[in-house]
User: Fold this.
Amino acid sequence: LFSIMGIAQIYKPIDTADYIQRKAFLKSFEGNNEATVKRLKSQYSGKTGSELSKIYKEFGTDFEKQVKNKDFIFKSEFETSIQPIIQRLKKNNPKIPQDLKILIAKDNTPNAYCLADGTFVINMGLYSWLNNEEQIAAVIAHELGHKIEEHSLKTFLKIIEQDKQDKAVVENIKSTTTSRSQSQNQKAFDIFKNTAYKKGIERRQSEMQADSLGYVIFKNSDFRKEEFVNALQRLQDFDTISPRELKVETYKKLFNLPKQAFNEKWMKKEDFSLYNYNFYKEKLNKDSLASHPEVSRRIEVLKKTFAELKTPVNPEKPSDLFLTLKKTARMEILPNYFHSEDYGLGIYAAMQFLQDEEEEKYYKSWLGRCFSKIYEARKNYNLNRYLDRIEPKNQSESYQQFLNFMWNLSLDEIKNIADFYQTNEALAKVN
Assistant:
């Protein structure tokens, strides 16, 4: 316990003031993206080439803004740990681009992606969620499958072609129907529906293809084969696992302050019983629109395709370095939320950590910082930017209760909480 408390007291969020490295990366990225745009414009003539050029220019501009906003960290232990994984994947897989560059994103979602110029983005959330280095390698291999098959480029080409076809069909509808009749509206909706379904099918096929190719890359690199499935299983847990429930006692413990007693009215829930969410019949099949197939289905297909994956195996024991990075990624969850201005989620996460009595001094300080930003937002009438509204169909009961609590607080009550958790009095209570 004392060693944990020691870590909490000395831990400082990762410094992103790496101006020199960021400037060098931006210069390289800008040149590479311009070269990609020129290549595509010469490779695809006419409107297709122009549209592709526009897409990649806009994407490049948006990505550069993210880099300038310090959404990524440079020269970190995370990057150092990933380089050997990349080299190992390259060794027996000649199709992997040799010019891959690594960027670590300050993002808590367990995900990764590869850009057209060979920049590989690894979200910090992979380390806080996966079990070991081999599972990190599995996710990278899957994304390399997307890269090798140029799924992004193919998707853009299909979107451009589909857009041309849809415009032609719409023009035909206009020319054959003289009034804005129900029949005309139905035809237009059918175009939208069929296009949406088609895109959903194509995206799911791309995911399946990236799984298969990614597994072959993974296997060729002599990683423990079963960890590829274990990684997918872990990602499925992220999609489906119920959030940790916040107990009422936690609210009372954290917000019964010396100068502001806990008020039961804060916990009052909004009544949605009068709303019938099933009144409107949905015209679209949600499953057909899913951009990623259910992970359980992906695992099933992999096991059918590769017989050696049929027998489940427990995850490999992580290295000491991975455990250190996992700890760091966990400690960075609050700084990452704060950086992305997700102050409501930051408070919710801090309360969960404090409910589990983790790193109390550290998370109480972040609780104060996030409440301070919520106070500023409430005062400036833009709280919706930083705190979700309640959506009974899409949120857990625990998160709905939290949102009710937050929206029930008055401006002065929010300020009192922010002030308390930014003073030494609150932090002293840890000891």
